[in-house]
């Protein structure tokens, strides 16, 4: 019976259906036609109660705050601030990249949002100043890994919810590794 969902996923995947919808269709087919032994009402109840966790409400708001700051120009002001702090040093713009990731991690908490913002702002400036495009891309990708560690990191919220730990304690515990990552990359 477990080959049936795998076949559904493969057929839908090869017909250019997005993988998320293919997995959803396979799961629905498995629970509908398979001999699972779990009532469908219980599955629906678990789905709704697990998605209504209060700490998860913070995630879209942190992403929205990061987007508002990108739109309003605060992120470019943060870049200028980071440039004043480290721009005069050797490899200054690469260090600006790392410092900006650390600062933006405290705003959005998302590595994807951080990498997208920096690839729009910093990578073109780095290539203009003589950095190679692969190096600029690599430092942007590596430094964006700091963002989820610095509070309010989205991963910290999800882990706190799963492990049933205080979100505030997770935020307090995230500063030291985030700052160490920043100094390590600089």
Provide an overview of this structure:
This protein has 186 residues and is mainly α. The protein folds into 2 domains: 3-52, no CATH class; 55-185, no CATH class. It has 10 helices and no strands. It has helices spanning 3-14, 19-33, 40-51, 58-72, 74-86, 92-105, 111-128, 133-143, 154-163, 167-185. α1 (3-14) packs antiparallel against α2. The radius of gyration is 21 Å and the shape is elongated. It starts with a helix and ends with a helix. The mean pLDDT is 82.
Query: What coarse outline follows from CA principal-axis ratios?
Result: elongated
Rounded Rg: 21 Å
> What class do helices, strands and sheet pairing give?
mainly alpha
Number of helices in the DSSP assignment: 10
Q: What count of domains describes the coordinates? A: 2
Query: How are helices and strands ordered from N to C?
Result: HHHHHHHHHH
**Count of strand segments:** 0
Biggest sheet character: none
Poorly predicted residue ranges? none
How much helical structure, as a percent, in the residues?
over 70%
The percentage of residues in β strands lies in under 5%
Distance between the termini: 53 Å
| Nearest-integer average pLDDT | 82
Helix and strand arrangement:
Elements: H1 3-14, H2 19-33, H3 40-51, H4 58-72, H5 74-86, H6 92-105, H7 111-128, H8 133-143, H9 154-163, H10 167-185
Helix pairs in contact: 1-2, 5-6, 6-7, 6-8, 6-10, 7-8, 9-10
Which terms would index this structure?
2 domains, 186 residues, mainly alpha, 75% helix
């Amino acid at each position: 019976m477990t080959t049936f969902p795998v076949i559904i996923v493969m057929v839908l995947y090869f017909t250019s259906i997005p993988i998320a919808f293919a997995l959803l269709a396979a799961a629905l087919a498995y629970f509908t036609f398979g001999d699972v032994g779990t009532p469908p009402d219980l599955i629906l109840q678990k789905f709704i109660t697990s998605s209504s966790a209060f700490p998860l409400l913070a995630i879209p708001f942190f992403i929205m705050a990061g987007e508002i700051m990108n739109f309003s120009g605060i992120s470019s002001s943060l870049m200028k601030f980071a440039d004043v702090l480290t721009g005069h040093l050797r490899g200054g713009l690469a260090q600006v990249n790392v410092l900006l990731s650390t600062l933006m991690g405290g705003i959005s908490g998302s590595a994807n949002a951080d990498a997208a913002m920096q690839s729009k702002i910093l990578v073109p400036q780095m290539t203009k100043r003589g950095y190679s495009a692969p190096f600029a891309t690599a430092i942007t990708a590596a430094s964006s890994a700091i963002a989820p560690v610095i509070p309010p990191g989205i991963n910290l919220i999800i882990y706190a919810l799963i492990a049933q730990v205080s979100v505030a304690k997770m935020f307090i515990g995230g500063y030291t590794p985030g700052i160490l990552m920043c100094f390590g990359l600089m």
